[in-house]
Here is the input.
Amino acid sequence: MTTLIRAENLVKKFGDFIAVDGISFEIEEGECFGFLGPNGAGKTTTIRMIHCVSPLTSGTITVAGLPASVDNRAIKAMTGVIPQEITLDIDLTVRENLMVFSRFFDIPRREARTRVDELLAFVELETKRNSKIDQLSTGMKRRLLVARALLNRPRLIIADEPTTGLDPQARHLIWQRLRQLKAQGTTVILTTQYMDEAQQICDRLVVMDKGKIFKEGVPNRLIEDEIGREVVEIRIGMEEDARLIAELGGAACGHERVGDTLYFYCRDGHDIRKRLVDLDLPAVVHRPATLEDVFLKLTGRSLVE
Ligand SMILES: Nc1ncnc2c1ncn2[C@@H]1O[C@H](COP(=O)(O)OP(=O)(O)OP(=O)(O)O)[C@@H](O)[C@H]1O
Ligand SMILES: [Mg+2]
Here is the structure.
């Protein structure tokens, strides 16, 4: 595999505030790489530096060997960005939004028309081609942003929280499209606060918080290494912890208290759940471990506050 993006000791300051605090990472051509982290972690700030709209305070980024300095046209030409904010021109129709955007890349008109038709089909918006933006649902607007990001046939797609606020069906459609692009060889960078989303589409990811990367790896491996396979949650008062943990002493599970919940992290949670049910405890939840558990364990906080 070849490395498409290489970032070393990347720092971004806004005045005295350090939004990105000396992070390093490498993204391989053709993979889907995720930045997972809560609000304010520094995800958007990081990717804005990658696609050359925000200057680095210090450190380096290269994309395909080129330095990511502000307005590097070669990098912009090979990149498609699905921004976190919905930035569509509300005075134009769906189709016109795409046609106008195609001019930024100097795509000839006839070619642009063909691509716009193809892309409207790709995101299932053909029937809305002549609708104004305010006649679209949020999910449709996000799909239009996906189509817009693909106009220049990019080698790299950057999707900044592309499914925030969408219903499950709309989320799945966007996930499918991102996977389809990856299958065609496109490199995908995804930022998200949703661990299920990261698990669904990322080959590798970094977990960020407060401008720093504190974990990196393959989603399932991170879960396996940090948590195990299963989680049993019990909603009980903290004063019960010691007694319960002693009572379950034989179970080969790690445990942790976060807020109103006592968590047991296990290879197999069936045994422990059965014993908890026998003890007649309220609200016992038994489920597969997720990236949320990794985040919770490492920070003591939940990803979505
Ligand atoms: N232009 C700016 N001026 C000052 N501070 C900024 C600016 N842009 C971002 N920040 C700050 O930098 C930090 C990181 O912001 P960023 O938008 O990168 O977070 P994020 O991980 O994308 O969060 P979210 O999930 O909410 O989108 C935040 O504390 C934010 O307030
Ligand atoms: Mg953001």
Remarks:
- The chain has two domains: 3-218, 228-288.
- Residues 168-183 form the longest helix (16 residues).
- The longest strand covers residues 3-14.
- The two ends are 37 Å apart (CA to CA).
